[in-house]
Design brief:
The chain is α/β, with parallel strands linked by helices and about 375 residues long. It is built from 14 helices and 13 strands. It has two domains: about 160 residues, 3-Layer(aba) Sandwich (Rossmann fold), CATH 3.40.50.2000; about 180 residues, Glycogen Phosphorylase B (Rossmann fold, 3-Layer(aba) Sandwich), CATH 3.40.50. The protein is globular.
Length: about 375
């Protein structure tokens, strides 16, 4: 049996949640027994299903973490455990000396740019228990490396995706009603927080509209930044060409990707928060949509510049605007990038191509 201990798992939604569920599902699909020890989402039903077992742990964070660690140790003592995957150093903090391989995933945002001495020591202590650390990008590997001792092996595995749903007629019709014949359609799908760069796209729209008067920018996702973004769209005089879609289902997401000319998420650093990879870029790849990403962070692993999209200096508004206009101004470039993106997402970007690399870290 393989154990997965994680703070992030469905029904909670997010990139890490998708990654951890994908890991559990694909390890199970490869014939391994898998037990997931996950944090409970208060107010949500424990209704996930797949080729794995799940035990949810509630209560205050410190108590929950200790109970999960005890459950891991109890399972290891009982025997038959091939190894343990932890979703981050925080989930590995109480797992020293397990006597089975411990593999810790690294995402980027959990490594502060300027950690206190206490935080630095805490991360080092947690990762000292790891046999292998899997970073989601070369950028994240560079962040994790200073915390590792001589015994831990560091490797990079870009987060894979599974096959994405086809766009269905009902959701396409609903998207078309919103679009109402306007073009080009720009899309962002993200948690609404400043570092995602949605504000930079909104600020680019007055200049974009000079060349593309019927442009529509669809922003899908929820978050605390929405009121600020709505006010910004009004202040920039572009509220009429910005549509906030809110949270969307997987079926709605497929329809939006199917109708988008470009996917825009010029993520930037905000304090200690930075994009470690950006699995949503891979989702855009699946549907053949070229992407614009920020150059800082791990997005350079997710978006291959000039091949599947473009990178920009996301803190420089002039560069963000220029790269959007480059994508919109060259249909042949978009077509070529879309073809490359589809090939990547349907091939090496798939879980089927990556699950063996995760399994190899246990040996």
């Amino acid at each position: 049996m393989i154990l997965i201990t994680t703070q992030c798992f469905p029904p909670r939604r997010g990139g890490i949640e998708m990654l951890m569920e994908g890991l559990a599902s694909n390890l199970g699909g490869a014939g391994h027994q898998v037990l997931v020890l996950a944090d409970r989402v208060e107010g949500a039903e424990d209704t996930v299903s797949g080729p794995y077992q799940v035990r949810f742990f509630g209560g205050v964070k410190s108590w929950r973490r200790r109970r999960k660690a005890r459950a891991v140790r109890s399972a290891v003592r009982a025997g038959g455990i091939e190894g343990v995957f932890a979703d981050s150093w925080k989930s590995a903090e109480l797992l020293a000396d397990l006597d089975v391989p411990l593999v810790v995933l690294a995402h980027g945002m959990e490594f502060p740019a300027r950690p206190s001495d206490a935080k630095r020591a805490r991360i080092r202590q947690a990762l000292s228990a790891a046999d292998v650390v899997i970073a989601n990008s070369a950028y994240t590997a560079d962040l994790a490396r200073p915390y590792l001792g001589d015994s831990a092996r560091l490797t990079v595995i870009n987060p894979p995706i599974g096959p994405q749903p086809d766009a269905q007629q009902e959701q396409l019709a609903a998207a078309d009603q919103v679009i109402a014949g306007r073009a080009p359609v720009l899309l962002t799908l993200a948690r609404l927080e400043p570092r995602k760069g949605v504000d930079a796209v909104i600020r680019a729209l007055p200049e974009v509209r000079e060349q593309h008067p019927d442009v529509l920018y669809i922003i899908a996702g929820k978050g605390d930044d929405r009121p600020r973004l709505e006010a910004l769209a009004a202040a920039e005089g572009v509220a009429d060409c910005v549509h906030f879609a809110g949270a969307v289902s997987e079926e709605q997401k497929a329809a939006l990707f199917a109708r988008a000319e470009v996917f825009l998420m010029p993520a930037r650093r905000e304090g200690d928060s930075v994009e470690g990879f950006g699995i949503v870029y891979r989702e855009a790849n699946w549907y053949g949509v070229p992407a614009l990403a920020g150059r800082e962070g791990g997005a350079a692993d997710a978006v291959i510049e000039g091949e599947t999209g473009l990178l920009c200096d996301a803190s420089d508004q002039t560069d963000v605007t220029a790269q959007i206009l480059t994508l919109l101004g060259d249909a042949d470039l978009r077509r070529r990038m879309g073809e490359n993106a589809t090939k990547l997402a349907h091939g090496s970007g798939q879980w089927a191509a990556a699950v063996e690399r995760f399994l190899e870290t246990l040996h």
